Amino acid sequence: MHNLDILFVNPGNSKGIYQGLATDYAAIEPPTWALLLAESVRGKGYTPAILDINAEQLSHEEAAKKIQQLNPRLICFTVYGQNVNAGTVGMSGAVKLSNLLKEQQVSNPIAYIGSYIQALPIKCLKEEPSIDFGFTNEGLYALLEVLSLPKIDVTNLEDIKGIVWRKDGVPKMNSAGKIVSKLDMDTEFPGYAWDLLPFKETPLDLYRAPMWHAEYSQDHRTPYAALQTSLGCQFACEFCMINIINRNDEEEIGVAGHYSLMRYWSPEYIIKEFDKLIDMGVRTIRITDEMFLLSPKYYVPLCELLKERNDKLKEQGEELKMWAYSRVDTIRRPGLLKLVKDAGIKWLCLGIESADKNVRLEVSKGKFEDVDITKVIDQVHEAGIEVMANYIVGLPGDTHESMKKTLDFSLELCTSGWNTYAAMALPGSQLYKNAVENGTPLPEDYEGYSFHAYNTLPLPTDQLTPAEILKFRDDAFNTYHNHPLFLERIERLFGKKEADNIKEMTKIKLKRKIFENE
Questions:
Q1: Is 248's pLDDT higher than 70?
Q2: Is 315 exposed, middle or buried (0-12, 13-18, 19+ CB in 10 A)?
Q3: 226 contacts 32 by C-beta, under 8 angstroms
Q4: pTM of the entire structure?
């Protein structure tokens, strides 16, 4: 007898993905998709629960025991990372747990939803026998169809669109299922099941913000929440796979961006989720949208509503401390930055990618407008908003000279946040498809897709080996975070203790398998 229809499992493998940074520095993000799906199915009359292994820091054995005690009709692993692009690395912890469940002869059907199985559905089922079936789009409608079955028979799912399953033991991909339309966002994704998350003393206190979001203070990282005001992205950058959830073909190596679609919750509806968080005492919030500052039609009314809330909090001696994403070429109306700041958005995470315009344009297929980046950063700073600047080294066309140009440019901009990735062939991205077609070596396991991991393997370029790119990235991390002007800025804005926290962070050295093989 099942009292629970579905258990959404958020897997964990923080130490494998982040190495020594996992204990004190890596963020612990709420499982956004599990929260959205749980609230959706609950609204249709089903009983969901969420098991967040990462937040509770459970071993696989402890997690397996909890799952068996809960005994759901369906075990659904939601395998996304701290952003949709990072979902592949989450597979490392997920498959270890689902393998253990099968070894323990757990008979409850196991489904996966996440960016990796969406990108490579057939390959995933061939490689992972512990997965009974998976969802090939965002999954809501297919999930509801599965839950409506009197008995979930994983050997007979012929009629359900939007899934990959095994017919007579052979992986088969059914025709694509539909995604939630623009008009149905408020009703089909009616909010977040915050009450299903684990907590210690107060809601969301097991989650913690990135160090920079907390102004480099360990004391201000919790409680922490993340939510989205829109889904999708209208751009098609070659290094990104976010729009893979919108695929509507049966191509095995799908590529994101072909069916890009932006869908928004109405500002009047999504503000209710902010109100819930504020009522729970949460002030530190991440707006997870890939492009928050894209459409003034949506973000201006929402920011006006958030400003009302933030003004009331300020009267009580508090304030919202939020961050949101943008690109440097989408801040087209700098006059609105004051409203963004007044709404409680204290940080903007900007994708600068490369200081070399030719490299930047190559991976964005001409959809990256040539703007004066320095001017944009100055405008953001003048509005009283701090910047987390994101860069990528090892993009197609990169050389030692262009990577150094990017580092030097980042030092010149001297933003309070700095993050540089080594270009990775993420499944679902054009870079991945190119790598497969060209026979370029790829990471040997899921962990290897994390650029923090021991066995990570970034892409080469025509002039650079993966080891050269990774060494440059690791050295650049230390160069930037120990740079006198950067540390002076942090101490001036946030305090000496916070600057010292950064120095301590740089003492953690990531081990790299690729360097041992040289």
A1: no
A2: exposed
A3: yes
A4: 0.92
